[in-house]
Amino acid sequence: MSLHNPLKPSQRMKIPRQESIEQPGPERSVNFLEVSFGFDEERAIVESQRCLECKEPLCMDGCPVGIDIRGFIQLVLEKDYVGAVKKIREANYLPAICGRVCPQESQCEELCVLGKKLTPVAIGKLERFVADYEMKNNLFTSPVIVERRPEKVAIVGSGPSGLTCAAELAQRGYQVTIFEALHAVGGVLRYGIPEFRLPKEILDLETERIKGLGVEIYTNFVVGRTATIDELFGEWGFKAIFLGTGAGTPNFLGIPGESLSGVYSANEFLTRVNLMGAYRFPANDTPIKIGKSVGVIGGGNTAMDAVRTARRLGAEKAYLIYRRSREEMPARDEEIHHAEQEGIEFLLLTNPLRILADDNNWVRGMECQRMELGEPDESGRRRPVPVKGSEFVVELETVIEAIGQKPNPIIQATTPGLETSKRGTVVTNDKQGTSRGGIFAGGDLSRGGATVILAMKDGKNAAAAIHEYLQQTPA
Question: pLDDT (tens digit, 0 to 9) for every residue of the chain, 475 residues total?
Fold first, then answer.
């Protein structure tokens, strides 16, 4: 028994994991409102009672940014929800975002001791609950910045790594400026993740809180074009620069028919819908044409976002086409489950061969081939092997390719001495430093495609390294 939880461990283990309140599948498949409403207070308290309050909480080892998980859950038990979210914010300045999109099931929750025999504590849902409680009751207070420092730091890109790096440095008192190429802040959080998973009002609120730390933000500013990295150091007077420009250049399969009308990359499709508000057309002046049958190629979270978005835009048939089995899918289990509830049809062990055209050069279908799983490849997943003579055609009017992306090369091409990999990523050391002194990088720009929370980890580590670098560098 503990001061925080009156229940014995044996009693806690009998409490079933609490489920989020959600819109029903058929209802939400035709709207862009948030799928999950999270926990109410009662569910949050019951779920927090399940925590075994381990002396050595392994869950923290699974958190890329090192949140004191046991500590914040104990504060939930005491009904000190504001104290709980402040405890989270000591390590993560964007709790309302991470509580929604972080893959907790493969990180903190995967290491939860309770999950070894039963189901793990719903750490992510509790994080979201306390962040939302603070937000709904207008209880946020900005941290006090003890010391203001003269050094100027530039953050290039306003995605999760850039926002996190900016927040960390601003709290240390540095003069921080974010440069964003698009007209709105958020990077992949804005253009990549749909409204039904991350409402933009939450992203806007978290951004305003970072601006409240004294961070200045320039939008429509393409570093490498509007100003180079060397100009930011020279004319602008920045002493250190963090590059967090993400990976916004799509990959394509290279199959026949990709130039047909009706073929999108997931990047373009989701950017049109999320950033430019195509789902509100004609209220928003961004049309997007999809047919009654849509096929999305891929098995990751981006593919899930694209196919679920297509369904909401009116597709009567929305197919997820993936060359491996469900077990090999990199998408979150929750997203796969939600897609199934929304009527998405899964064509698994299916490999696209070519996209077929009608008389007007629009998509009319796609020729595919059945696959079977062979031996594991370098990713550890079983390699898909074609089944001879198994070709078939799926009738489609729209094809969306969601098979990964790579960094935009503008900064790499305009910054002499910046080492890059064969994949176009910026090479970094274990402190996010690059081959050029004073330049740091992280997120998808250095990793290739990765998760929001790993990008935040890089931003946080880079901020600590920049602080160390500036402490050692003469003014």
Answer: 455 788 888 999 999 999 999 999 999 999 999 999 999 999 999 999 999 999 999 999 999 999 999 999 999 999 999 999 999 999 999 999 999 999 999 999 999 999 999 999 999 999 999 999 999 999 999 999 989 999 999 999 999 999 999 999 999 999 999 999 999 999 999 999 999 999 999 999 999 999 999 999 999 999 999 999 999 999 999 999 999 999 989 999 999 999 999 999 999 999 999 999 888 888 888 889 899 999 999 999 999 999 999 999 999 999 999 999 999 999 999 999 999 999 999 999 999 999 999 999 999 999 999 999 998 888 788 899 999 999 999 999 999 999 999 999 999 999 999 999 999 999 999 999 999 999 999 999 999 888 999 999 999 999 999 999 999 877 6
Residue ending a domain, among 368, 403, 438, is 403
- Spatial strand order of the sheet with 345-347 comes to 263-265, 398-401, 293-297, 317-321, 345-347
Tokens of 396: 């489609």
Residue 50 sits in the same domain as residue 98: yes
In this structure, the answer to whether residues 286 and 399 fall within a common structural domain is yes
């931003």: which residue's tokens?
459
What does the DSSP assignment read for 269-292? HHIIIIIS-GGGTTTSS------S
Three-state SS string over 293-331 comes to EEEEECCCHHHHHHHHHHHHCCCCEEEEECCCCHHHCCC
> Are residues 458 and 359 part of one domain?
no
**Which two tokens mark 19?**
């489920």
Residue-number span of the structural domain to which 226 is assigned: 152-248+407-472
- What does the alpha-carbon distance between residue 428 and residue 149 come to, in Å, rounded to a whole number? 26
Rounded distance, CA 237 to CA 228, Å?
A: 13
List, in sequence order, every residue forming a beta bridge with 249; answer none if it has no partner: 406
- Using alpha carbons, list the distances in angstroms from residue 239 to 226, 231, 244: 19, 12, 17
pTM given for the model: 0.95
Q: In this structure, are 320 and 359 located in the same domain? A: yes
Does residue 268 sit within a domain?
no
CATH of the domain at 131: 1.10.1060.10
Query: Do 58 and 183 belong to one domain?
Result: no
Is residue 132 domain-shared with residue 203, that is, in the same domain?
Answer: no
Residues 388 and 294 in one domain: yes
Of the residues 359, 381, 403, the one at which a domain ends = 403
Q: Which amino acid type is present at position 302?
A: T
Judging by beta carbons within 10 Å of its beta carbon (0-12, 13-18, 19+), is residue 68 exposed, middle or buried? middle
34 and 167 assigned to the same domain? no
Q: What CATH number did the domain enclosing 419 receive?
A: 3.50.50.60
